[in-house]
Amino acid sequence: MKKYFKTSGLAVLAAAAFLTACDPEIDAPEISKGDADFTRYVAIGNSLTAGFGDGGLYRESQLNSFPNILAGQFKLAGGGEFTQPLFSEDQKNGSGYLKLTGFTAGGSPIITRIPADAERPNTPALPGGKALTKYTDPVNNLGVPGMSVKGSATPLFGAINPYFERLLEPNEVGTKSYQQVIGESNPTFFTCWLGNIDVLTYATSGGVASPANPFSGITDQPTFNAVYNSMITNLVKNGAKGVVATIPNVTLIPFFTTVTVPLVRAAANNAPLYITTDTGVREADSNDLILLTTQAAIGRPDNVGGNTIPHGFHPANALTDAEVLDKAEVGEIKDATIAFNNIIISAANANNLAIFDVNAFFQSIQPVDGKAVLVVNTVNYTPAFISGNLFSLDGVHLTPRGYALVANEFIKVINTKYNAKIPTVNVNAYNAVLFP
Predict the structure, then answer these.
(1) Cα separation of 243 and 382, whole Å?
(2) Is the model's pLDDT at 287 over the cut of 80?
(3) For residue 225, what is the enclosing H or E element?
């Protein structure tokens, strides 16, 4: 028996050696930069570029930003280092963020705010929020939460927005615009996803613009056109190539689609729901969009003229204008989005740049008859709140999986436009909303 096993073992080894020698060589997928130069990749944009998610900017969200994912793939084709204004490990909570900590007996999510730990002590708050830890070294990810096309041309924005203020030297705050920062960035390749804040701020405020905030309304088209084209001119002035992204229809995100008029009415035994619009109080219909943040206020027992009236269910205590995006305001936003996207596409074509039509992409992944149309390795992706894998707990920004999906779409248009062969990433390897 001993001799048998010895001989058998040698036979197996010999057979293995023979089979190995006969195996055909499997070539690794070819990786190529094509006509692009990723030596200095710079990302231009707002919160979606910065990696904002779950209602905040924090270290983990920054590490999962789509530009950081892209930069990792670009390195495979000779791309250079990519620096982000990361919060330190000691201040990893950044500006604070939302976390899913459980569910009520009725199945509603319990969402808890994790406090910020990157706020500068003994520093007055800016109009846009508390001052955050400074990061004034050169960076490649220039994503600034809250940055609009209109705001990018305004030096004062640095004295208003804490995320932009933290990137500026003290003497530059209020004197240096985002456009100037872009002009100094000198990329060899760039992505530019800017413009949705020019409608989103108005939308998430229920279509209410504040007279005290010049950036709270929908940006006028001449301003958007002039500033956006100036920005693209700055980016390509030294021969850089890049990708511009269009603005998605913001009314399709969970912030506006989770708490619907039919669902609210059904939960209240089909009682009529009343909303306040520019023209007065009326009954809501399915074309009016209730903000996600309004949910807790619906049905609240308010004292109105000595009577207790549930909020939203009587004309005398209708949902306020700021709590609902009525159908007229939805129309304004859709019209502005179309106009802005035409400007973006025209600027890209004029400069021979690649275009990632984010608006068309998000339109294409809307569920059909309640079923997901985007399925990646058996995992469904939809715009549904929490369960859809795409959107984070604020209902506006993406999960790491959502950002990875966006990164892959950028890669696809880069490969097509610039004859490159950049591999995509496994989106399912990234986190969606984490359950407790």
Answers:
(1) 25
(2) yes
(3) helix 221-236
Place of tokens 């890049």: 242
Helices (H) and strands (E) in the chain, counts: 14, 15
433 falls in which pLDDT band (50, 70, 90)? Answer: very high
Q: Supply the Cα-derived Rg of the chain in whole angstroms.
A: 25
DSSP assignment of 100-119 equals EEEE-TTS-EEEEEEPPS-B
Token representation of residue 242: 């890049």
For 381, the enclosing helix (H) or strand (E) is strand 379-381
Phi, psi of 160 (to 5 degrees): -110, -45
Q: How large a percentage of the chain has pLDDT more than 70?
A: 94
In tens, the pLDDT along 328-369 reads 999 999 999 999 999 999 999 999 999 999 999 999 999 998
Cα separation, 39 vs 245, in Å, equals: 21
Domains of the chain: 41-256+329-429 (3.40.50.1110), 261-324 (no CATH)
Residue pair 55/71 in contact (Cβ under 8 Å)? The answer is no
Structure token digits, residue 149? 């096309």
Distance CA 427, CA 11 (A): 44
Whether the per-residue pLDDT at 11 is higher than 70: the answer is: no
Nearest to 82 by CA among 169, 232, 187, 213: 187
Written as six digits, the tokens of 236 are 């390509």
Nearest to 430 by CA among 389, 395, 387, 373: 389
Range 296-321 burial, b when 16+ CB lie within 10 A, else e: eebbeeeeeeeeebebbbbeebbbeb
Residues 6+ apart with CB under 8 A from 389: 379, 380, 381, 382, 399, 401, 402, 432, 433
CA-closest candidate to residue 193, choices 397, 415, 7: 397
pLDDT single digits (tens) 368-391: 988 999 999 999 999 999 999 999
Distance, in Å, from the CA atom of 337 to the CA atom of 331, rounded to the nearest integer, reads 10
Confidence band of 3 (pLDDT split at 50, 70, 90)? very low
Gap between the Cα atoms of 404 and 66, Å rounded = 6
CB 30, CB 124: distance < 8 Å: no
